[in-house]
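Issue 218. Parser rejects a valid record. Input:
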Amino acid sequence: MSVTDVRPTGVPGYSETFPCLPSSALSARRLVRIALTNWRLQQLVDDAELVVSELVSNAVRHTSSRVIRVTAAWPMDTRVRIGVVDRSRTIPHLQYADRDHIRPHGRGLLMVDALTYRWGTDLYPWGKMVWGDLAVEAQS
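Output the parser choked on:
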């Protein structure tokens, strides 16, 4: 599916399905960048690209999904929601740093937590969406 095939989600938004592969993070970043640029919210692009990269990486690493769905929605004037949907019902949790063990992985949600206003998980009968909300500053 190309960017021109992206389907709106009802509220101002973009949504696209990708293979559940590490290389999909690049396409997910592009989708988020296009959405935010179209909404004239370029100030959020860098943080949103990092958030979606971490969410895609988590889906790839921790699920057996063949595909994921990446969404960028603007449900309220004060926030933009970046989400990744997969087929797993396992709820992710923050893994805090352990002084005695250096982990090469497991800090993605810490980054999502630091970059977003809030983040969470919506469970569905067939899977879940992990999302992060970025605050939208009032525009003059």
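Fixed in the parser; the record now loads. The longest strand covers residues 67-76.
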